């Protein structure tokens, strides 16, 4: 019994020593103010000329890259005015062609104006701002903000979603 009491006493002393150390540490260490992480969503987009209206044929994809050469995309003249469409007829749209799910390259289907993924079969509606309409992706397709000048030159000036695999859209 005496041995048992000694063990309890040793345990109590070690506990008190630990508590004293913790209290001393709490007093000695200054509290560091939390640093706000920089926002990765705030990026500057280049204004890149991608094509001229004369280069586009109705319902045929025109391959481009934006915002840099490692980001494949496509311009489409859909033939009917759509939300977010640019140009004199409001029917020109542009999208990244990298699937937001796992980065497979997308193919355009002219019959229903969708971009389709061969990886896990996600489908994106080009007439509805790249909205995902089927498949594994949990994000919509990044769409270009387009501007068409008086000469018909088409400029991309931004993206509405994060490109697959990037921390920000401009490297
Ligand atoms: Fe496109 Fe998975 S990579 S659906």
Automatic annotation (TrEMBL):
NCBIfam families to which the protein is assigned, alphabetical: arsenite_ox_S
Organism domain of life: Bacteria
Pfam families tied to this protein: Rieske (PF00355)
Ranges where the Rieske domain occurs: 61-155
Keyword annotations: 2Fe-2S, Iron, Iron-sulfur, Metal-binding, Signal
InterPro entries for the chain: AioB/IdrB_ssu, Rieske_2Fe-2S, Rieske_2Fe-2S_sf, TAT_signal
Tagged with keyword Iron: yes
Name of the protein described by the UniProt record: Arsenite oxidase small subunit
């Amino acid at each position: 019994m005496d041995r048992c009491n000694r063990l309890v006493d040793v345990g109590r002393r070690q506990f008190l020593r630990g508590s004293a150390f913790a209290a001393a540490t709490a007093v000695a260490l200054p509290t560091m103010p939390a640093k706000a992480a920089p926002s990765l969503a705030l990026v500057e987009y280049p204004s890149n000329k991608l094509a001229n209206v004369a280069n586009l044929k109705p319902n045929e994809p025109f391959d481009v890259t934006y915002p840099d050469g490692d980001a494949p995309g496509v311009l489409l003249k859909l033939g009917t005015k759509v939300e977010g469409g640019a140009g004199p007829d409001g029917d020109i749209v542009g999208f990244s062609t990298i699937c937001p799910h796992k980065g497979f390259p997308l193919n355009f289907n002219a019959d229903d104006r969708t971009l389709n993924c061969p990886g896990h079969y996600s489908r994106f509606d080009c007439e509805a701002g790249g909205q995902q309409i089927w498949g594994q992706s949990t994000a919509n397709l990044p769409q270009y903000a387009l501007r068409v000048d008086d000469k018909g030159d088409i400029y991309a000036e931004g993206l509405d979603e994060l490109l697959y695999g990037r921390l920000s859209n401009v490297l």
